[in-house]
Amino acid sequence: MPAHGRSWPRGVVQSVCLLAAILVVALPGLALAGNVPKLLRVGLAVGAYVMVLLALTRGRASPPLGSFVAAGVAAGLVSGLARGSISAGVIGAGVVGAGFLLGPLHWLALRSWRRGTDAP
Question: Does a structural domain hold residue 45?
């Protein structure tokens, strides 16, 4: 862990580990099905999401919603650009979907989970 209070919030780290565990199951399935383009697209998008999220939440006790939205936007953009054919509509839908649905849902889940695990 980084020194001087510059570590990542525990809930963010735990949820990223859960996401990694899900990917350990999902990505080999895509590979075995021969769907290498989707495997690459999902892997790159998740990588972008995690990198942006960790960069923006480091050192924050309570990560703001904007960090999750930005991470989602990055994931949607990377996923759209990693497709075989690039379409502004598809990229826009990915950016909006991941940025304004996935990111806020992740943020809300962490807030709800944290509230449920804080013992009085």
Answer: yes
